[in-house]
């Protein structure tokens, strides 16, 4: 399977479930031609082969393969099915920004602009082979089964199952099947978040992760487009923003708590990053 792009959905808001179903085609039948539906159409093939195109690109989807069609795209069959074919479809909306990124191992994550923001970019492969077909099939059966339930009974379950399905697709793309450099970058990120208050260096990170410092740096830059020390620096400043709003601690106390040795240096870094001093930032949110 050739490399496919990643469809990035920026959250918040979260994707919103619209509907789902199960379709079977006999030989000679084909997917309808449609355009500008206004919502995402996720296809998951269970049996046979589905021939479909979007905006000049074409795919032959086999058993256990998925394809995410875009809201503004033109979707059409490239030829009829040549054998009995069955697939699930899931329609969902996303009111936030979205776009396609090359499959480069990099999932760009937005920075928090407010002290309590929790931005995230959901990365769903345009086309993929399911890493766990049994788990996906169970989610899809339950999701489709809810269509016969009352709206009040089904609503929250439907939204939750959609998010579980998208999580399964995202993790299948970057989880156990991800290349070793990607897994190391994510281990490095987790280690930084757990130990950001400590005196971390590239060398102490490498020792803790059992890899050469230069290799850890290369993996982080490939995955997050920043070195471990750049990631650490930004994470410390984000934690400081929250403490400025949630505590009455002095700037010096906050600087020390998040890992800066000297308050003046912390204040300078904060202003260079956010264009405002720590005290002025605090006054924006506190009376």
Question: What is the element layout, followed by pairings?
Answer:
Layout: E1 6-11, E2 16-25, E3 34-35, E4 40-47, E5 50-54, E6 57-61, E7 65-69, E8 74-77, E9 85-93, E10 98-101, E11 120-125, E12 127-129, H1 133-145, H2 151-174, H3 180-195, H4 202-209, H5 213-224, H6 228-246, H7 251-257, H8 263-274, H9 278-285
Antiparallel strand pairs: 1-10, 1-11, 2-9, 3-8, 4-7, 4-9, 5-6, 5-8, 7-12
Residue-averaged pLDDT: 91
Class by SSE composition: alpha+beta
State the CATH superfamily name of the largest domain. Regulatory protein AraC
- Series of secondary-structure elements, N-terminal to C-terminal: EEEEEEEEEEEEHHHHHHHHH
Overview of this protein structure:
This protein is of the alpha+beta class and 287 residues long. It folds into 2 domains: 6-174, Regulatory protein AraC (Jelly Rolls); 180-285, Arc Repressor Mutant, subunit A (Orthogonal Bundle), CATH 1.10.10.60. Helices cover 41% and strands 23% of the residues. It contains 9 helices and 12 strands. Strands 2-9-4-7-12 form a 5-stranded antiparallel beta sheet, with helices on one face. Helix 3 packs across helix 5 (213-224), helix 4 crosses helix 5 (213-224) and helix 7 (251-257) crosses helix 8. It is elongated. The relative contact order is 0.12. The model has no long low-confidence stretch (mean pLDDT 91).
